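Checklist before submission:
- one chain only
- standard amino acids only
- sequence pasted in full

Submission:
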Amino acid sequence: MIEKLSQTEYLTREELYDCLYSMFEEANKVKVFRTLQDYSGNYDEIYNEYVQLNLKEVEQLLADFYLDNVLLEGNKAIEHTYFVAEPVSTYLKFEALRVFVYNQIGHKCYATKLKGETDFVVFDNLAVVLLDFTEQGALKGGFLSTKPTDVEFALSEYDKYKTSAVDYLKAVPCEASTKNGLNRKIKDLKYNLKLN
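Returned file contents:
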């Protein structure tokens, strides 16, 4: 995909995080495409607990994730489309629990059988960021373009992947008991925050 963009500025990991944060603050619509099947190269405390089958801890950490994000992201239109290969990876099974939380916040999450070249994020008509990962799924940095034709191209690519997509949780169901416990915790939080 990078060769199809006319403007590409490489950002180190630190620069990328700063860029993603500031773009997210400004954007009203965010579209994220993920093609990797495993991101465990990044340190992810919640995933590490999931792999060790500490599911009560996973429930609590994801409830905390909900609490940290519900008030910040409730007014944004955020979509995620994931390429999901068979057999479904452990990471994407775990991701179903995070998708359950995303849905509670108001994000839309889809699964597609169409494999993409790279992970990318589109912010309104402002920018597209191509994410650069190691083979182990650790974020190294990324490529930024703010050129309108590049953003249009990225949006058309995103729409191509989403065309045949289905609801993520229909393609990759959550582990039931953890989902039920998490659902109870989120309902309690919504009640306490008066979000119902």
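Reviewer check: The chain has seven helices and eight strands.
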